[in-house]
TrEMBL record:
The keyword Glycosyltransferase applies. Its EC number is 2.4.2.21. Keywords: Cobalamin biosynthesis, Glycosyltransferase, Transferase. Catalyzes the synthesis of alpha-ribazole-5'-phosphate from nicotinate mononucleotide (NAMN) and 5,6-dimethylbenzimidazole (DMB). Belongs to the CobT family. It comes from Chthonomonas calidirosea (strain DSM 23976 / ICMP 18418 / T49). This is Nicotinate-nucleotide--dimethylbenzimidazole phosphoribosyltransferase.
Amino acid sequence: MELKLPEIPELSRQHRLAAQEQLDRKTKPVGSLGRLEELAVQLCAIQHKVPPDTARKRILVFAADHGITEEKVSAYPREVTAQMLANFAAGGAAINVLARLMGGELFVVDVGVAAEPVVGVKNRKVRWGTRNFAHEPAMTVEETLQALNVGIELAFEAAEDEVDILCLGEMGIGNTTAAAALLCLLTEAREEQVVGRGTGLTDAQLEHKRAIVARAVARHREWVKTPFEALCAVGGLEIAALVGSMIGAAASKIPVIVDGFIVTVAALVAYHLTPKARDALIFAHRSEELGHRYALELLEANPLLDLGMRLGEGSGAALASFLVEAAGRILREMATFAEAGVSEREEQDVT
Ligand SMILES: Cc1cc2ncn([C@H]3O[C@H](COP(=O)(O)O)[C@@H](O)[C@H]3O)c2cc1C
Ligand SMILES: O=C(O)c1cccnc1
């Protein structure tokens, strides 16, 4: 198998300009809806249409396990990943509540959970968890490509189903460690800057997690030459699938709402593999996880929300989807000055 990525179209300058022009004719002071106006314009540029479509929303939660959990880097046991899949299927997780509230479809995709498949979860297992990257590469080239392709396929399936907005999330105990190691390998970041508490480590446990990441990153730096190899070395199956889904969505002109730390690191990998993938991304929120700020800066991202959240599952993306939909609906539904018979701004001479 080879790394073959789909072609990503340019953002549409024509639709961006048309959107801005229409917004300026709506019954409000010019620019008064602030970042909602920027969002509306961005949606039009990504979708190549004015007004944008926002009614059909889908959340993809990619799930997998991590060999690095053998090193005691999470506050919770690895079994929680599979147990949460059952919870997702039963409708009891935070993301189920938010999906119902926003009227979005929730697809949970098992790319590599170390347990039997769960009914109600899409089974696309590449293997039962990654290898422990403290000792060896987490994934082979073949496994990484397979997981990337799962993501690309799910994005293409969303395009076939005429999904308007894609929200991305993840579930995988240990994945803040994988994401932090990936961030270190891709950049010059030091572990104190990007390795955080994840599900809630104590100070001593955090110290231990940092030592594990520092040692593993030093070891893999010896052979890793490309972003793809970094993904193989310390990434995760769900992280690779997230990368693929972003590239597939960008190729299909579907705006993607990026959740917290892990999804943002996946976005950085996608950007390194194909910079145009960045254009389709909308950043939901600033997570409490330590490395998120740094990852966002690298992508020049200014997220919509800052709610002190650090859950994952796509929860921040689901919340931000309300703002994204609001932006689209304003462009679609607001009356213009002419339509409503409202007087426009006056040029007043005050001299
Ligand atoms: C019950 C529970 C539900 C979750 N939902 C998302 N995560 C989040 O926490 C995990 C990453 O943190 P760490 O690297 O510290 O293991 C991921 O599964 C992430 O989605 C959860 C974690 C737990 C415990
Ligand atoms: O920022 C996130 O998405 C996050 C933080 C901690 C644990 N899981 C997810």
